[in-house]
């Protein structure tokens, strides 16, 4: 379902030149340290510094729609309702305008879709968009038509062959559902005894892996229909370092389950309550991603597959949110354990982390693996 938003029908975005300059300086790096301030979200920093160059470079490959009157359509899947999402789209539009300004005299029109689950607060997103279009003499507006699209990115959302540029950043680690077997006490994949996947059994990881494969297949099948010929799709994933023989997560993240164990020992929560929580996120291995992408070789040409290490500060609030570098994990914890217990957990997590850094059993940075995949829709016969 696409929701046209009256207030956005002809929005003009404005430039955020300071951040833009920062990530432009970092082009070409493949081993990146991320500096984070308290309360900032890691994915904001990674987006800007480490991953965005590949996405901007991909934009330069985009061809104009064959029908000149057609608008250039840009979609951000799993856009959330945060400022970063608006800023990312501004940067994408600016690059598109630079590109087409160089290559043709007349600018195309732009249609931008902010896509996410129906459960997010789209009103908050719309307020942000409206704030971004306020007049400001210091900056040049980027005109576009914007709309919010509510639905699951694992389903079809757009008409056939209508999207020119799409990106899913920090979204494809979110699964469409928690595999049923991991909540079934009689299944070998039962994930009792933990809240994450950091110390789970091979059977549990296999159940998540199967769900992640199904989801990525559904995502790519839907996009194969929706992308216009030569349309570009940019995806990023947090990954495991390699396959199941290596540990699923960093030593910093394992702290989380130790804190929950302690809470059970102290009677703060019951073991049942802990055991019935399972994450909705999964870090695929690079091989798991490339294999699914290869299955779509008749639809997409792989323009780029880049794997890089990003060193995330251990002390950032988002690391404490357990399975994902995003605050959405904290929201899941709150929904299950309640606000009070979750806040206690976050405090305790940070305390254990700082102690570990202080006595040098943990490093300040945790090294995480990320993969960027840039696909080009092959022309249809
Ligand atoms: C970590 S946030 C990333 C937000 C944004 N892409 C960014 O880079 O700032 C993940 C987003 O994916 C969204 N999401 C999760 N599952 C989804 C699905 N099945 N379809 C669409 N969006 C989804 C969540 O609601 C959330 O807004």
TrEMBL record:
InterPro entries: MeTrfase_7 (IPR005299), MeTrfase_capping (IPR042086), SAM-dependent_MTases_sf (IPR029063). Signal peptide: none annotated. Coiled coil: none annotated. Keywords: Magnesium, Metal-binding. GO terms for molecular function: metal ion binding. It holds the Pfam family Methyltransf_7. The keyword Magnesium applies. This is Uncharacterized protein. The lineage of its organism: Eukaryota, Viridiplantae, Streptophyta, Embryophyta, Marchantiophyta.
């Amino acid at each position: 379902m696409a929701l046209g938003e009256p207030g956005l029908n002809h929005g003009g975005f404005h430039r955020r030149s300071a951040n833009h300059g920062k990530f432009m300086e970092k082009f070409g790096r493949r081993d990146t340290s991320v500096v984070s301030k308290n309360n900032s979200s890691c994915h904001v920093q990674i987006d800007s510094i480490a991953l965005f160059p590949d996405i901007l470079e991909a934009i330069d490959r985009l061809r104009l729609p064959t029908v000149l009157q057609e608008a250039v359509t840009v979609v951000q899947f799993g856009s959330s309702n945060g400022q970063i999402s608006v800023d990312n789209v501004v940067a994408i539009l600016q690059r598109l305008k630079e590109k087409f300004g160089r290559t043709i005299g007349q600018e195309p029109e732009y249609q931008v879709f902010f896509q996410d689950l129906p459960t997010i607060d789209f009103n908050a997103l719309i307020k942000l968009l409206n704030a971004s279009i306020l007049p400001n003499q210091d900056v040049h507006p980027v005109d576009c038509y914007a709309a919010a699209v509510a639905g699951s990115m694992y389903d079809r959302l757009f008409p056939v062959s209508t999207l020119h540029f799409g990106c899913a950043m920090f979204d494809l680690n979110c699964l469409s559902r928690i595999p049923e077997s991991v909540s079934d006490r009689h299944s070998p994949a039962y994930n009792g005894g933990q809240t994450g996947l950091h110390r789970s059994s091979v059977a549990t990881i296999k159940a998540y892996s199967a769900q992640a494969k199904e989801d990525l297949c559904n995502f790519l099948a839907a996009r194969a229909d929706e992308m216009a010929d030569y349309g570009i799709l940019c995806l990023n994933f947090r990954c495991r370092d390699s396959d199941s023989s290596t540990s699923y997560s960093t030593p910093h993240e394992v702290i989380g389950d130790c804190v929950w164990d302690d809470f059970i020992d102290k009677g703060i929560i019951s073991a049942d309550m802990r055991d019935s929580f399972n994450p909705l996120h999964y870090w695929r291995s690079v091989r798991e991603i490339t294999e699914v992408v290869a299955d779509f070789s008749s639809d997409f040409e792989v323009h780029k597959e880049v794997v890089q290490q990003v060193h995330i500060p251990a002390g950032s609030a988002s690391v404490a949110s357990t399975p994902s570098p995003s605050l959405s994990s904290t929201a899941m914890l709150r929904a299950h354990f309640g606000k009070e217990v979750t806040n206690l957990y976050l405090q305790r997590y940070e305390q254990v982390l700082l102690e570990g850094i202080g006595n040098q059993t943990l490093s300040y940075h945790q090294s995480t693996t990320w993969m960027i995949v840039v696909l080009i829709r092959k022309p249809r016969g």
